Fold each of these.
Amino acid sequence: MKLKITNGTIITPYRYIPDGTVLVDNGKIIAVQQGDMDFPDSEVVDAKGNYISPGFIDLHIHGGGGYDFMDGTEEAFLKIAETHARYGTTAMVPTTLTSEKEDLLKTLDIYKTAHQNNLNGAQFLGMHLEGPYFALSQRGAQDPRYIRNPDPAEYEEILAYSDSIARWSAAPELPGAIKFGQRLRQKGIIAAVAHTDAIYEEVLEAYENGYTLATHLYSAMSGVTRRNAFRFAGTIESAFLLDMDVEIIADGVHLPAPLLKLIYKIKGADKTALITDAMRAAGMPEGESVLGPLHTGLKVIVEDGVAKLPDRSSFAGSVSTADRLVRTMIQMADVSLLDAIRMISATPARIMNVENKKGSIVIGKDADIVIFDQNIDVKKTIVGGRIIYAAPENQR
């Protein structure tokens, strides 16, 4: 349980520590400094001059490696966690799609057992329920059969059924959505605006009543709109104006470079989290795939680094991995490596209220660490002080 990670450049939220060493004991970081340190009886990990970074935290993810969290199996949960660990993800928030209540409850049941048995992949930080309380006009690839307004009888049953829900995304303009946000805040669950046609006044009211996060900014949400000749600010502008956290699919496809730069300029690294929003095809070859449950989901085609509807009229999901997000922000948005890493480690840790134990390489925190080179190619992934992924020797 003792690990010495040495001979690398340590990335902190605000600076680099060259020729750094990190000591780990019993899953926790116990020392961080420049130069070598004696640590008897420890396993030595030579970073070989590469970066020693806090592990990547993915707030919004649906699948990978050919699996989806809505497949209804524990195997799906575990394989997704293992797949994304290969790309530097050390913690994730498994995400559902709009569905029947019974399917949600089943997924929450599976999460419980998978969480206990997840030994070889990225850790789970609780479930994210994406829907079913959405605006039909902004459904994106969500199944319209299951989209509905917030129903207190339904969501109270779900909230009473499971304590594994960490966040819940909804359209704040729907009837009952404000009371829903208030209830989530009472339960300590993060409420997020998503798949919405809300205007500023509606988002402001939602923000005042518990909605603190914008789910995949720009995707499936309103911008400036006109009603009876008058212009109204939409959800996108509201997220910029309010002191609201935002998450972005930084795969380089969902958002072009100018929008990535605009978000970074306005919100900054401390208010912006990078997410994959990945579906089952992440980490898989391009071709045909399925969004959502394997047997009842939506058929899609993966090409150009993104999932599309079969008629190619719209994107149908991301196939990104966390390393790609960091690479995109550096190469397309001109963001520094320090800020790109903060957007996928310290910032999501704060949003998920786990900053006291995750998100940075600091004494006392969990030893969730990723080693990568200048191209953000992952060499090793360490979760809780355990090496759960090591690149093949010819790729190190």
Amino acid sequence: MCRPVIFFGLFLLLVGATTKVSAQTTDLARIEYTYFPQSNSDNSFRRFRSFANFPIRLNEKEAYLIPGVEYRNVNFMYEDSENFNTQNLDRFHSFKGNLAYTFKLSEDWRFAAEAGLKIASNLTTDKVINDDLIYIGSVYFVKIKEDERYVEPWRLILGLNYSTTTGFPFPLPIVNYYKRFHPNWSYTVGTPKSNLKHYFNDKHSMQAFVTLDGFFANIQENFRVQTPSNGIAESISMTILLSGLGYEYNFTDHISFYTYAGYTLLNDIRLRDKDMEDLYTINKTNTFYARGGLKFSIL
């Protein structure tokens, strides 16, 4: 594999973000479906996600400009009986556009920066308002070291990620380390995902993983929730920490099918007020989780 392709693939680890932490992926495009029911509840969560990135090589010094787009459709089946109307909490949309730039600092190190704008809302007024807008930004330093014994090099990613929905007035750190230490084994340690992966052959692989997932969206028509503070719900957030097993089948060198199944270690779904403070906990009982899809990747 040529060095420019490897460097470009590593930068794509940096493209795409959740509201809590950057998602790191070597994928150029993906279509994905997620489902998990809520234990001790009639609620359930379904999400359709798709994204695509479009690399533009700027010069012979391996500088790239990479625009990308992403769409998420979240169907939250809110069936629990509450003291407020849940009718407008069943469907949320997220549209994101981002632009990334990367170039080499040295033989082993690469710098990357990304900025983006996201619209995340239930869109009950059929128009976009200011509170629907989320601004995101990230910077990364990536070290890549060749290892001729295996298919891929080891790599270290250090970075900072900022989003206007995290509730923190400062960027959050990103640390991620990957190494293929045997022809049939590799591991990743860091955020948002850690795993131990076994390669049966060029077609089949399995992994044990721990990862973060979640979503954030504005609620356009705010409403009062009967709590001790009688607060006004203005947004909804979900933060999930889960572990499980995953399987991947490669149709070709770049197109593959994947499926993950596991159980949540943290399942936190909350309504939040205008100051991003937790107002009401919808559900925090751990539950089953499943996700699968198709992806086009370069590594």
Amino acid sequence: MSDVRIEQATHLPDDAVSAVRALAARAADADGIDAVSEAFRLALTSPRASVTHLLAYAGRPGPVGYAGRDAAGAAELVVDPSARRAGVGRALLRAVLDGGATGVWAHGDLPAARALAASEGLVPTRELHVMERAVRDGDEVEPTLPEGFSVRTFEPGRDEQAWLDVNRLAFASHPEQGSLTLADLQDRMAQDWFDPSGFLLVEDTTTTQDGGAHPLAAFHWTKREPGSTTGEVYVVGVHPAYQGRALAGPLTGLGTAHLARLGVERIELYVDGDNTRALATYRRAGFEDAVLHVVHGRPPAP
């Protein structure tokens, strides 16, 4: 294959977006897992996304590889299966690192991705567990919340800012989730899978704020792609002031019950490897590890 040429852009034309999506689909078919996450897929077309796109070209029409790098330093990359083992992945990896990436995702922790990262001196710095379990009899029954709390569904046009505030506090140390903006939320609300009836808000009914509203204590946002038999625990968060109030278990059960009533057969979720409390909660609820995603970055200085 000819020398690899890398082009960078902050916004991609429609034909480039189509080419990247097709390339990523071919890679997913070959690897059995998506190399490009939802956040980077949304960034392909969002005019508000702070992502630098890198397209790799090598001696034939159209891109043979794609990488994205966000403002926080996270990066992802994918190479067309027909162009692998020809230096494309290495060229993209070096380009995102030279551009300031602090960590590069290896979705599925595939051997080839591990080998490429190690050859460039990178080491695992973060793990993201994908856990799942089958829907069981009784899942459709909503759990009882602790006294003083109630649940309702998200109301577009009313709840955006309150949710963003609690999400920011709940995920203050989370490099992606905690930095979501109103534009990011609106991008997700515009997707065909968004359903406010599956976006569950838990309120503290023992107190009121200005205007008479109850403060938001926690939330469980579920997701199901149209036609899919798998539902997702998309995001679960608890305001720091309400942690330790026995909300974790019932909060998980609320979303599980909603998904079970939709008729899904399996439920999956994502949780960071260092979030031992959440891992324990989900394992008690019957979830087991299915896939591991790993971030590779520079080793810490001695």
